[in-house]
Design a protein that fits this description.
Layout: E1 7-10, H1 42-55, E2 60-65, H2 75-88, E3 94-101, H3 108-116, E4 119-124, H4 129-132, H5 145-157, E5 161-168, H6 176-187, E6 191-196, H7 219-236, E7 242-243, H8 244-253, E8 270-273, E9 278-280, E10 291-294, H9 300-304, H10 307-318, H11 322-325, H12 330-333, E11 343-344, E12 350-352, H13 356-378, H14 386-403
Parallel strand pairs: 1-2, 1-8, 2-3, 3-4, 4-5, 5-6, 6-7
Antiparallel strand pairs: 8-9, 9-10, 11-12
Helix pairs in contact: 1-2, 7-13, 8-13
The structure holds iron/sulfur cluster (2 copies).
One iron/sulfur cluster binds next to loops.
Length: 424
């Protein structure tokens, strides 16, 4: 089966980065290429661009640049990349570039280029200073907060389109509203992605073992984090602030595909390419057992459609534990990413997602609001109408609290008497 489109996460400098974020899953990949210069050659850039564009049968293609830190390639490399895209693009094809960066090397010249060429930038920022600097430090262990904020301001000045990628970890997970309000109010961003840090303890840096580092978020923490932010968003920001997991969830409640691999039933349409043309099944599985081949030896499309890659993608569905099959939120969760499936179900079955508790709580929590917004969309009304509903419900609840007698059931729904609960 040849897909109409697929993605490749490009690593032009491999795992090389100017920072040393303590939870980074990619820095250890340098060990796969001892002695390498970690720099994509112009020949590989040309060949990749040619093959990638020829293989796509959709009107819009995206080049996804990541690392390590891709800006370490220098601006001229990206000028050549854009030139190659112009050279190989099919008639009528729209070309997009997505650049994930820590932002620390961006200057006026970079920002002019990014704006002029319509790059969509993902900027990594974990919240206000103390929460961001908890793990996102440079090679000397120093704070990176000011440099990242300067990059955000510079991109705003140059009208570069960017979204914020915030990882959720042990340090910032207990502070959901502090993180969200900082991004929304102080930074003024309208596009946010949350990525849970689940970092396994092992010496290989591969997806092995079932213990996690102390930096990792727990399932419960992640669920609580998302719920707190959703409760704020659904009251104030629908239609104004776009949080990726909320959008993905709404698509699922509308009966559409989520559009994000981790929540799809199957995956495998997002390869990763190292600096030397080595292709792996996924950015999260850059490790020998998921090596597909090198672009110099095998055409990209053949690697994408190989039996090994098909099997990789279908295993996401085929290895789902029984608990997930009977789960009320499987339609939106689908067991999330296989990289996190190293926990056990209550009856001892292996392969449950480590974050299950959080996802189950979160998706159940948002169910009424999602149903309402999906119904509004079906009726061709604005999903933002949910904010009026929430305001009415909150006012009613406040009234019930204000008028509850000491021996009445607590309006919070705990089942306890008011005097033993919120009335205490
Ligand atoms: S392994 Fe996870 S991140 Fe990779 S493609 Fe599958 S779902 Fe996506
Ligand atoms: S919430 Fe848990 S049980 Fe339900 S589909 Fe997701 S991982 Fe499986």
């Amino acid at each position: 089966m040849t897909p109409a489109a697929f993605h490749v996460m490009l690593k032009p400098r491999g795992a090389i980065c100017n920072l040393n974020c303590r939870y980074c899953y990619f820095l250890s990949k340098v060990r796969l290429y001892p002695g390498s210069q970690f720099r994509m050659s112009d020949e590989l850039l040309q060949e990749y661009t040619r093959q990638y564009m020829a293989a796509q049968r959709v009107p819009e293609v995206t080049f996804a640049w990541q690392g390590g830190e891709p800006t370490l390639m220098g601006l001229d490399f990206f000028r050549r990349a854009v030139a190659a895209q112009h050279q190989y693009r099919k008639a009528g094809m729209r070309v997009m570039n997505a650049l994930q960066t820590n932002g620390t090397l961006l200057d006026d010249e970079w920002c002019s280029f990014l704006h002029a060429n319509d790059f969509l930038v993902g900027l990594s920022l974990d919240g206000p200073r103390a929460l961001h600097d908890a793990y996102r430090v440079d090679r000397g262990g120093r704070s990176t907060f000011d440099r990242v904020m300067a990059a955000a301001r510079l991109m705003q000045q140059h009208q570069v389109e960017f979204n914020i990628l915030t990882t959720v970890h042990a340090a910032n997970a207990p502070h959901p509203l502090e993180v969200y309000r900082f991004l929304r109010d102080e930074l003024g961003t309208h596009f946010i992605q949350f990525i849970p840090i689940v970092e396994r303890v092992n010496d290989s840096g591969f997806q092995e073992g079932d213990r996690v580092t102390s930096r990792s978020v727990t399932g419960k923490q992640y669920g609580d984090f998302l719920i707190a932010i959703f409760d704020e968003w659904v009251r104030h920001d629908v239609g104004q602030v776009f949080v990726q997991i909320f959008d993905v969830a709404l698509a699922a409640w509308l009966g559409q595909r989520p559009g994000l691999c981790i929540f799809e039933e199957t995956c495998g349409n997002a390869l990763a390419m190292e600096h030397n043309g080595d292709i792996y099944s996924c950015d999260h599985f850059v490790e020998p057992r998921h090596f597909l081949g090198n672009l110099a030896d095998v055409p990209l499309l053949d690697l994408m459609t190989s039996e090994q890659q098909q099997h990789f993608g279908q295993a996401k569905r085929d290895t789902l534990p029984a608990t997930c099959h009977s789960c009320e939120v499987r339609f939106v969760c689908n067991g999330e990413c296989p990289k996190n499936r190293f926990a056990y179900t209550p009856d001892g079955e292996a392969g449950l997602n480590y974050l299950c508790e959080g996802y189950r709580a979160f998706f159940n929590h948002i169910d009424p609001a999602m149903k309402f917004m999906a119904a509004e969309l079906h009726a061709q009304r604005a999903p933002a109408n949910i904010m009026q509903v929430m305001a009415r419900q909150d006012a009613e609840l406040q009234h019930r609290f204000a008028t509850a007698g000491r021996n009445d059931p607590c309006p919070c729904g705990s089942g306890k008497k008011f005097k033993h609960c919120h009335g205490r």
